[in-house]
Amino acid sequence: MTVDARTDPMSAHPVRNYPKFLWWALGEATNGNLPFYAWMLALTAIALVGANAWAVQVVDGMIVTNMTDHVSWGLYIANFTFCVGLAAGGVMMVIPAYLYDDEEMHKVVIIGEIVAISAIIMCTLSVLVDLGRPDRFWHMLPGIGRFNWPMSMLTWDVIVLNGYLLINLHIVGYLLYMRFLGQRPNPTWYIPFVMLSIAWAISIHTVTAFLYCGLGGRPFWNTSLLAPRFLASAFVSGPSFIILVMRVLRITTGYTASPAPARLLIQIIRVAMTVNLIMLASEIFTMFYTGGSHLAAANYLFFGSHGRSGLVPWIWTAIGLNLIGTMLFFTKSALERSPARILACLCCIVGIWIEKGMGLIIPGFIPSTLHQIVEYTPSLTEWKITAGIWAVGLIVMTLLLKMMISVQKTREVLELHVE
Amino acid sequence: MNSSDSPSSPSKPPLPILSILDNGSTRRTALKGVAMTLGLAAFGKAIWPLTTIPENVSVSEFLQQHYKELTEDDKTAVFKRLAAETKQQYGADVTISDQRPIPGVKFAYAINLSKCNGNGKCMEACNKENNHHRGVDQSYIRVLEMSKGSLDLGKGTTTFDHTVPQDDKFYMPVQCQQCDNPPCVTVCPVEATWKEEDGIVVVDYNWCIGCRYCEAACPYHARRFNWEKPELSAEEVNPNQGYLSNRIRPQGTMEKCHFCLHRTREGRQPACLEACPTGARVFGDINDPESDINWVIKNKRVFVLKEELGTQPSFFYFFDS
Known about the structure:
heterodimer; A: about 425 residues; Formate dehydrogenase/DMSO reductase fold; 14 helices; globular; B: about 325 residues; alpha/beta; Alpha-Beta Plaits; about 25% helix; about 15% strand; disordered N terminus
């Protein structure tokens, strides 16, 4: 069955057929076996629980969270910070693939971009649920609202996060569509965006660090090491997460990739995590040796103060997990498809989630600016909403990954026919 | 996705793929449609609580513009609506007005720490004057009990519960310092808070989106968030209200001390100063050479809190010699 290129409507109207393609791919992505439907059903259930908890929070007020005027940001902003790192971490696949022309990485780089898209959606949701007045969201829209740009770092964050989402949606969509059509992607249509996405990935986490480190009244955050530390830890959590995703794909869909990309990611993690730990040690030294205002929060975080020690178990768990994860990453078996590698990824993901959230956002508020110690533990509502956000992110990620696999499988079948 | 592993060589004709897009197993599609419908219904049920909002949020509230963009007619309509809502929700008749800065006036505040004895009358007065939530004795002022011999805030406490004054202590009330370089204004993403010509930093409670970035940015813990709808009975409501000051704040928005601008811009003193039995508080126009506040700044050795942060407060402290 051969068709002339000029009579094939797909090549005649590639742009017009793009939405049709997306719809088809979504349809393919929602086909699956029983475990797939069970997974999606479970995620949907969690997302619905989160949506319900959020609706109650909007109506009853944020009193249903455990945040206070002392600790005025909590789990939502903590999770937001981590998800920004997850989104930025995917760039560690893009750089080898496009700047160093790593052929094997090139074949799987789209997975990193899909993880980034899902993570950005989680970021946006995390900020949205943190708003006291989500109904006034339009006040932030440039043009009809009042957008305090460039002064407010939050407006920068809105720009860079949405920009990063659009860039990645374009790259992923374009490459998948071209693959589907069996055409060579036109470099002018995506290479500039890939290059932009590299700079942009760095910017999302830098701007997010600037949100905190620009505040002179919060000595715990007010350090120029914050942005570099964010980036270093993102280049651990992002690649770790991607390695887990690739493993799950291999088990559930038989998706195969050469071992080289994962090995390269492990090498990157080894360097990034070491840098991260050095910077952490450097911060700890400066805080504790100097003493003074920077010490109060660090003291509370690591050892507790005035008989309050709510964050002590969190931070030591994080440090323990990060150290164990790092040591596992340095073992030889981490370079193979081994349980040690999976364990290392899990340790570092959880460790960094704590370190950036409960270990960084929360102690910025304890003690308060008037040096009162009011502790914080997330409420059930906050856990439900955060779990719901993760469920939505995982639903998006699952569907995008399945779209990718459907396109590849369809292509393979078609090509067999032609042979 | 690698461009180089793209399989079709230039010689091969493109493949027929449109037919794939049009194919679809109808049974599966129908099942998916059912699942989708069920999912949407469940989602609708999950966010059902949101349907109770319209009682609190009217369409005109939703569409209301930023304070600075309201015309005089807009303001009249908005204030009328807010008064009607207060009547409906709190059962109190109130008038909401819009006092503007007096040209040439710049307000400043000073506290004589030798006189303040920590009695807390200022906090009580603030709570009443500014229509604060009554459940938690909230006010815009925190009085720190400090150890003599140190200005280290870390050695102070706001939760003391004993007779005052204690011999080895002194007392330091902290409220909004009305900084000339306010970090809270800089960080606000929607310009819901700004500094007016007379130095007072105000909030448009109907524009604030409740992100609480300003609360994180303030070095003096001067900002508060309305975690829930303020509760107060009709008799407790102070009916003389300013749009940018003491009107009852909506749930989910920020609030802060505004130097009682609805009083001070009409030549009266702030409620906390009127209530202070020790005479520790001095308030006035710093541009007026005859004012008490001007005399204090010229003749006392005044200091400001956290001067090193560069916030340039309009709020001073001093001790009698």
